[in-house]
Each structure stands twice: as structure tokens, then as C-alpha cells.
Specification:
five-stranded mixed beta sheet; alpha/beta; 175 residues
């Protein structure tokens, strides 16, 4: 089965703000960015379409013509706990420096670690693998796409920094 993971377009929050699970607005350029993303998906036919419940992913699924995409909480971005909606420069938590040094394993205070996110996304993909679908779309987030890439063996955990999707970009994996 082919799974196309599509990252949402740019968000309407200032650069440097931690927004993980927060349901933030999209940037004013949404229409232009969504049109570009849609052109990248031209000609793809999906058996099933899933989306994160967060508006930034759902709006892109709607724009592409999937207003009834199946919403699944496991496709949310990494939960950043007490850091949500704070500027990274303003966070006074000593755990932040540890997270900067090892973001793949350190858990944001009150949030989830990357291994937590990976378990959540892997459980979704394990379940999806049991279906007889041919091509599935996931409208989601950068962290979800990284988990998908690791799950499919496209890259290792150590290589994730080189594989974060840009806004509105996509990744195809085979499961």
C-alpha cells in the first residue's frame, strides 16, 4: 500500500512559537499554498483519506476535495505540553535545553516525546496495513511525516533533521 503524507501549509503564528497540538490559524497565504500543494497531488487517486483533527490539516484536506476525510487523533502533531503557544526564546523550563540537545528522546514538560509520537503514528500505520487499500492520503504534520518515514525505512531516527517536510510538501511511503 502507498501512503502519501501531506504536511499542512504555513501557520498564522509568529516564527519561533511552539504550537504542537494547539489549533492555530493558517497563514493568509493559505489559498496560494494550498493550490500549489493541490498541483503536486494532481492525478493521484486515493482509496481512503485520513486527516489530523487539527484545523491546519483538515482545511487542506477540504481544499483538495476531501471534506469527509476520516479524522484520527493519532495523526496530530507532537504534544508540546506546557510549552504550547510560547515563544521558544521565552520558555524558562530547564528541560528545554535538554530537549534542544536530544529532541528525539527528551519529553517537553507535560507533553510527549518523539518516541511517544512514533508509537502513536506506528499504531495507526499498523492498523492501516491490515486494510486492503492501494493508495491512502494522510493530511497531517511534520512530525507525523517523520514517523512515517522512519516506519517505512526511508531514513533512520538519526537522519530525521534532513527529512522534515516543508509546509505543503508530501512524502510517499510504502507499508
Amino acid at each position: 500500500m502507498i501512503v502519501t503524507i501531506i504536511r499542512h501549509t504555513r501557520v498564522g503564528v509568529p516564527r519561533g512559537v511552539c504550537y504542537g497540538w494547539s489549533d492555530v490559524p493558517l497563514a493568509e497565504s493559505f489559498e496560494q499554498e494550498a493550490a500549489l500543494t493541490k498541483s503536486r497531488l494532481e492525478g493521484m487517486v486515493f482509496d481512503h483519506v485520513f486527516t489530523s483533527p487539527l484545523t491546519r490539516a483538515r482545511r487542506l484536506a477540504d481544499y483538495y476535495g476531501y471534506p469527509e476525510a476520516i479524522v484520527d487523533d493519532r495523526l496530530k502533531e507532537c504534544h508540546m505540553g506546557e510549552w504550547e503557544m510560547q515563544r521558544y526564546d521565552d520558555i524558562q523550563d530547564p528541560v528545554l535545553q535538554q530537549w534542544y540537545e536530544d529532541y528525539m528522546h527528551v519529553q517537553p514538560t507535560g507533553g510527549e516525546s518523539f518516541p511517544d509520537l512514533y508509537r502513536r503514528v506506528s499504531a495507526f500505520l499498523d492498523e492501516l496495513k491490515q486494510k486492503k487499500y492501494h493508495h491512502v492520503a494522510l493530511f497531517a504534520h511534520g512530525g507525523v511525516a517523520l514517523c512515517g518515514g522512519i516506519y517505512a525505512g526511508l531514513f533512520t531516527e538519526k537522519e530525521t533533521a534532513d527529512h522534515l517536510l516543508g509546509y505543503g510538501e508530501m512524502m510517499e511511503i510504502e507499508i
